[in-house]
Amino acid sequence: MSNRLVIVGTQWGDEGKGKITDFFAQNADVVVRYQGGNNAGHTIAFDGQKFALQSIPSGIFNPRIKNVMANGMVVNPKAVLTELAGLEARGVKEYQLFISNRATVVMPYHMTLDGAYESFKGGKLIGTTKKGIGPAYADKYNRIGIRMGDLLDADYFAERLRDALAIKNMELEMLGLEPYGFDAVYEEYMEYGRCLSRYICDTSVMLNAEIEKNSRILFEGAQGVMLCIENGTFPYVTSSSPSAASVPLNTGIAPRYVDRVLGVCKAYTTRVGEGPFPTELDGDLAHYIRERGHEYGTVTGRPRRVGYFDAVALNHARRVSGVDYLALMLFDVLSGLDVVKICVAYELDGKRIEHVPSTIAEYARCKPVYVEVPGWKEEIGHIGSYDELPVAAKNYIGKIEEFTGVKVAIVSVGPDRTQTITVKQLW
Ligand code: GDP
Ligand code: IMO
Ligand code: MG
Question: E strand or H helix at 347, and its extent?
């Protein structure tokens, strides 16, 4: 059995990746965040405490675990320092953290531009988290990005920042925004570099050494495949690829080491931010699910849009990311419904389709085709084994397996680490 496991969100984010990463981290040596930045909000609950992590990997609570922020991430150093201070204030004082010297730095102008781009989009705004994620990735691909390792070299950083500001300030001025002065930004970011220097290293070398030792490595995805820049509902997506396919590139390991993928999905669907969502619900049912699932954004506090489980979207995630098993999350939320629906196909302009169209123009016209299964009344948050689940609940799980072609390995019946039913042992 492989000692590596990739945890991938298979919907539009917030599937419970933090909880599942923490659950498997109890037996892991290394936890790696491979993309995204502090747009993520991963909630972890254990021993009566609740933590929301943004950039820091979910293994941080165990001093034995090496936590890696890999090269594919965009890192806001100020936010990382704030997050670490917050953890330390709550007693998480002993931890191991490694930040890739090749990870891209989120600069202050990225956050300004994120807000500005959104305000110019009028009715077509993406609803980003305004953390500067898109502009930071854009600069990376435009080769004017600054990397974490650059902050450790005073002269080189000065050169990189000067070159970047020459372009970014022109852009800001064109948009009617204040340009950034070199000195203030330089001093501030040099200081962040000094504060974080003990964590910054070549995490690819380190990860390959861990693979050599056959260490247990968890790759913790952020966002979800439907928000993937390559395969998501473009342009209503994030600017990185949460898919398992991005793990090798974004961590500096060989593709052959990505050999087991756990897809994390809610027992229903949520989406925060704009963009088409075929199974979206409104009215009393949406309210019922939103309140039972506390469906409000971890990062922005926005109410999440909620809908039925979408097997077409899940199949899309399975195809583009490779999903070996599913972790079915927030299953306890669905108790109390008379019937539960699963979307098994879409109807697009009168034709049945079983795939996600490439344009959101088409996707917005897709109507869900549902199968209905009986609901169950019993609360299940206290249940510790699959067999004890109500018959109708097990039937629903069976239908999800049937329509997605993936076996459910984990059923989550509450936010706490202990509220986790293992159906198939993954390690
Ligand atoms: P992530 O971004 O994928 O890590 O997910 P979030 O943490 O943003 O959102 C998931 C939310 O659901 C968090 O508030 C979790 O505490 C909560 N949660 C996770 N699993 C369960 C579950 O099985 N049942 C319930 N009721 N809540 C859960
Ligand atoms: P986790 O890891 C849910 C959404 C935003 C917006 C779009 C683009 O907690 O699952 P961005 O700031 O990335 O440019 O925003 O992506 N989004 C998320 N939605 N969970 C997340 O992360 C998200 N990260 C970004 O709401 O629609
Ligand atoms: Mg989240």
Answer: strand 339-348
